[in-house]
Amino acid sequence: MSTKRKYLDIYEEIAHGIRSEQFKPHALLPSEHELTSMYDTSRETIRKALNLLSEHGYIQKIQGKGSVVLETGRFDFPVSGLVSFKELAEQTGSNSKTLVHSLTLSPVPAALQHVFEAEEEAEQVWEVKRQRKMDGENIVLDIDYLLERWVPGLTEDICADSIYDYVENKLELVISFARKEITIEKPTHEDGQLLDLYPDSSIAVVRNYVYLDNAELFQYTESRHRSDKFRFIDFARRHR
What is the rounded radius of gyration, in angstroms, for the C-alpha atoms of the chain? Predict the structure, then answer.
């Protein structure tokens, strides 16, 4: 377990324990001292993992008492946070598959020049279309645009597995934050071809503008979700 990833791995392990009710709602997590011993790590690493659990709504830290486990339902799509489809499928225990329909490299399309603040001839962008299956049903159509200068060497095999894993672990870039827009729209002809839609279905469209830790936009994604298969949930915490 690398030092860089350790607090994230601890976060993911405890979060899984909370979702699977190994840690019951309203129960206390082990203390910071106990967790430090359990994971053979520093108190700072444990605190970073606990802060992330708090931010994502898994625990409430109460002074003098410890970290109380909050009730969490199984969510389908987190509005806050940046989670890949592969990570989401693993979290929910679903059987998933990604089919890559196209991968092309070309100048930034005129319609997206304002998004990437790029001249058409000066930037190359990957366009990736992926059909997402979960438990045997086609439920998401992802259309991604990624700047080639930040994400070189993209292949269909990488796209079928996880672009974020490639960006973070092979290219060693830090994906930092995203701006999201969610709208409900009528399905397009392409939606009808690639998603298992019911009559009069609607599509929940999530537009993601994703930035690296240097505040550079490197990805714009349009994720088209079957609205009968997803609920969009956030956890809000009031800061005083």
Answer: 20
